[in-house]
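User: Can you help me understand a structure? I only have the sequence.
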Amino acid sequence: MAQVQAISNDHKLIDGRAHAARMIEDLKLDVRDLDSKGWRPHLISVTVGEVDEVGLYVRNQRLNAEKAGIEFQERNFPASVTEAELLAAIESMNVDPRITGIIMQRPVPNHISVHALQEAVHPLKDVEGMHPSSIGKIVYQNLETGPCTALAAVELLKTTGLELAGLEVVMVGHSEIVGKPIAFLLMAEGATVTVCHHRTRNLAVHSRQADAVFVAAGKPNLITQEMIKPGAVVIDIGINQVDQPEGKSKVVGDVDFASCADVAGWITPVPGGVGPVTVAVLMRNAVIATQRQKTHYEVLLARSTKALQ
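Assistant: Let's start by predicting it. Here is the structure, written out as tokens:
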């Protein structure tokens, strides 16, 4: 269970960093076991062009991979690369048995379809859970892998110890890689889920009725104290940079943390909440992907051996 810290007498801060550290520690044994059998997880991070924010994400991923014992390699392509060239590069990684996971860093230049790249990654090497088949499996209650941020957010809800079956949940945001997968993941657990978005009328009417509110809308301070039911869980997935009076910028979520912390039963901070767990889930997906590929090749080998007998 994730570490919680007291905000006031009755309210708790969910420590995503501590939970992520425990996840990485637990993965070490699985990585060592795979490595001993010749299947050390090997991630390839694909970037296009130079974006400072992407560099920060890649460094964080590398750091966590190294902690878990996962091999991590970067491949950078110039911003002028064509979509066809990138698709060819991904295909070569798909057929390379030494590579067990592909991370397609975003954003990519406008002349390249990120959806085409996500679909090009073989499902067995889709450690981000972005391939349509990976997302589709959630509908059929295959909850082991999927989009990392969605899995991380639901995992943090579970750390509260609340019974998910019958829980009233509001998801603010309906993106294909966060909002919708979270809704399907929670419905698979028996929760009653309402999905709200930019066309929802009177968002507060919905959010005030919820036992748990997830927010991934990309709007700073969208959710305020009067929009939260006392004792509810607030999972803030937003990451926004806002300018400060002294000219500096600050990273904040989509929730007005100061006011919501006064009424929430549990709340995630930004930074330090969903973000670290997202990276840890990525590493867990990398281990699961490697285990699946090991099994896949063992089955192929067994079939080939049987055919030759």
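Now, to help you interpret it: The longest helix spans residues 274-308. The first strand starts at residue 4 and ends at 6. Let me know which part you'd like to focus on.
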